[in-house]
Amino acid sequence: MTQDPSDWWQTSIIDMEPGRIAFRGTPIEDLIGTTSFPEMIWLMLRGDRPTAGQSALLEAALVAGVDHGPQAPSIAAARMAATCGVGLNAALATGINMLGDIHGGAGEQCAELYLDIDTRAQSVPLAQATVDGLGHWRASRGKIVSGFGHRFHKPVDPRAPRLMALVREAADQGIVSGRFADIGEAVQHQIGADRGADIAMNIDGATAVIFCELGFPPPLSRGLFCLSRSVGILAHAWEQTEQGGRNKGPMPPSILPKYVPG
């Protein structure tokens, strides 16, 4: 039986043929100039249009995660790639490919924790659900809780309070429920109580609150962070291209790795 070649790929995202481009049923010419980039992201991922408030909250999360400087592996890798004679697209891909479970994936993992606690809280008070959820996390994933703590920003990551304030404002306006803001703050409080010292909710913890409030599945927390951080990666790759430099490694030539006999 011969397969119809048109059945090879099936998509509800785009309808494209000569002279026609439509995203989720809307002609591209009706989107250009009327639709913001966060709205377009929402449309492409979910198939419908966000409200103005939902779009603003998504945009805030995307803006907050764009960059954290060359000490971030993704940024450093892109800058090094830019000195190796590759194009911007390759430098950009190099940086994005560094966004794994530890650097870049914490938002996805944190969203999973929030959703687990939310499920538990259907039958027990939130405080108990938080204790139980953290206990399950630590038993299965170890003591480090994704979304909390930061090697530079102690005890406050300056991005998180602003994002959480925007979530609270959105909840007051009925744009989101505020449920996951409660969960995020409960987790932050419980970790601080367990360790006997305050701990920062970091960018991953705060954006996970927003993505959960907006109804994005956890894997998209990582995907959306990659979109956000790609802006910073591109900016640094371009800046390094303009600065020049050849074959720059992670350390200046005057600093050599410590040799340890095997």
UniProtKB/TrEMBL annotation:
Family membership noted in the UniProt record: Belongs to the citrate synthase family.
Record InterPro entries: Citrate_synth-like_lrg_a-sub, Citrate_synth-like_sm_a-sub, Citrate_synthase, Citrate_synthase_sf
Record EC number: 2.3.3.16
Name under which the protein is recorded: citrate synthase (unknown stereospecificity)
GO MF: lyase activity
Native organism taxonomy: Bacteria, Pseudomonadati, Pseudomonadota, Alphaproteobacteria, Rhodobacterales
Pathway stated in the Swiss-Prot or TrEMBL entry: Carbohydrate metabolism; tricarboxylic acid cycle; isocitrate from oxaloacetate: step 1/2
Superkingdom: Bacteria
Annotated region described as Disordered, given as residue ranges: 242-262
UniProt keyword annotations, A-Z: Lyase, Transferase
